[in-house]
Amino acid sequence: MEAPEFKKKPSVAIALLKRNLNLILPAKEMTRIIGVKKTDQDTVEINLLNKQAANLGSNRSYTHSGSINGSTKTTQTFTTITHDFAYSLKQADRDSVFTLAEQTQAQFLSGMIAIIGSLETAMLTALNTNKSQVSNTPSLGDWDSSNFIYSVDQADKNVVFQRLKGFMGQNYYPGMLDTIGDEGIKQWFEYLANQGGGNSSNLGFQLSNISMVGSPEMSPVDNKEGWGYIAPSGTIGLMDWIPEMNRTGFGNPYQNGGAYWSIPDPWGLGLTFAIHETSAGADNNSNDGERQDININVQMSIDHSFIVPTFSTANLSSIYKYYLNA
């Protein structure tokens, strides 16, 4: 009966981006990053080789020369999300319904739901912020070079995902694609996916090599049947971090400085939250406690960074925003 009260926003962007992280960064690179980032303020640098600039000719020569290739350094900055709450050691003494463990469990769960909801919003915002402003001209559909959006006409609704695959192919991304869409485009994907071979017009052929998730947080756009973001699989990710003292554990709430520990998310997203607890004497007689009581003050936190490839071409990205026109 408590499940509806403790429902959480679907974490579709977080799940997709965390899954991709293992494809973007090998284990040894993750170990290096964790070793480099020691404090909340530290950034992390990731080095990527540039594609060599080509100087094409039409004749062989024994006196040829060329330019030396370079690399691009990407600085990953991290943003911290925190949630504060408190409980007292005696708050359950006058409550015969719930134990102290049950009460604090609800508080910890509430904090994780709030932080994950904020993180999901941040990841959707990052997709829009980092969308490509550069595209090859599509042969079908339209590229809005002012708002940086690819649009598929209503007349091509039945093959919208084929149009998206073609558009990404014209931008040299022919492989597996991930897309996050609003409810409209997600429901249309599901409809197409269930058009079996016995139908007079089987439209499911176009869904190969496309992974689709829908986000209820992506609001409908006027005059559009649906919209979303699409990117090659394994090119965008989410990196989370907590301090070393929380990872290893230190102290207890009753000593000077308090306790540092961590807790994993219970939904299998692969996130870990840093926990810091301190204690203080308190009079909680007016709050179902005792005049002589101890408050435990808790801060739950996590650092996050959105990862997207860096290109030597300005404003180019692997993420594209798209509309299905109404």
Describe the 3D structure.
The protein is of the alpha+beta class and 326 residues long. It has a domain at 15-51 and 71-99 and 238-306. 25% of the residues lie in helices and 28% in strands. It is built from six helices and 13 strands. It has a six-stranded mixed sheet, sandwiched between helices. Strands 3, 9, 10, 11 and 12 form a five-stranded antiparallel sheet that branches. The radius of gyration is 25 Å and the shape is flat. 27% of the residues are buried.
Order of helices and strands: HHEEEHEEHEHEEEHEEEE
Q: Taking strands numbered 1, 2, ... along the chain, how are they ordered across the largest sheet? A: 4-5-13-8-6-7
How much helical structure, as a percent, in the residues? Answer: 10-25%
For the termini, the CA-CA separation is: 41 Å
Radius of gyration, in Å, reads: 25 Å
Chain-averaged pLDDT:
90
Low-confidence stretches: none
What is the tally of helical segments?
Answer: 6
Summarize the helices and strands and which ones pair or pack.
Elements: H1 12-24, H2 27-36, E1 44-49, E2 71-76, E3 79-88, H3 100-129, E4 142-144, E5 149-152, H4 160-170, E6 177-181, H5 183-193, E7 210-214, E8 224-232, E9 237-241, H6 244-248, E10 259-264, E11 272-282, E12 293-307, E13 320-325
Parallel strand pairs: 5-13, 6-7
Antiparallel strand pairs: 1-2, 3-12, 4-5, 6-8, 8-13, 9-12, 10-11, 11-12
